[in-house]
Design a protein that fits this description.
Length: about 100
Amino acid sequence: MGCVYFITLLLCGNHLCAQIPATKQLSTKDLQALLAGAFHELREKSRARRLWEWGKLFYATYGWGMTGLTVYRDPQLVLTILRAVWTSTKWAAWFFLA
């Protein structure tokens, strides 16, 4: 709400309200409410944005799924990953607890 309050003060402080006919009758509170609604509409996600985000989710899910499947098929890779996780855990414990 800080940004809306600042813009309201800017509009009313520079007498821009007098130059905009639709805002002549509005009080500062009404103008602030009007601007808050406009900013809310700007923050809403469009269909294209939501579709893009779903696409990113599906792509990431596919990537992690394929990685898990690849790891599951190769036992040596599983052993290597577990060793790396165990070693990094020991190092982190030594670093933070020492």
